[in-house]
Amino acid sequence: MIIINNYDNIKLDNQLCFPLYACAKEVVRQYRKPLASLNLTYTQYIVMMVLWEFGGMTEGELGKKVRLDSGTLAPLLKRLEKQGYIDRTRPAYNENKLMISLTEQGEALKEQAVSVPQMMDGCIPLSSEELSVLKKLLDKALVNMA
Fold it and tell me: Taking a C-beta distance cutoff of 8 angstroms, is the pair 120, 114 a contact?
């Protein structure tokens, strides 16, 4: 007689979510050192990358791109503004919108940030082919979850 354990589905080793969580946490931890010279946290770095790529936008648009809600994004943006990297302004035509734009200092930080991906190369010990497959699968999952 085969006994099936009803609790196998809640064993940590049987979860996909845990290795995703643990790997993401480890990668973010490894970003601390290269980002320290930029005076950025990982989440601030993600926000800055979006602004460097797309330019100014509303807080709502930025939140959608980085998948952060306003409650998480607003304090992060306040810190970036205090550091002198961004400006937060309300346009006269619509004071309900909060526009986020880079300052000269924030734009200049882009030059220093160019080296970060190179410093992070190899932080996930997979071949370039495996990393490409992983990226495609994660992108597909995110699109289908949105």
Answer: no
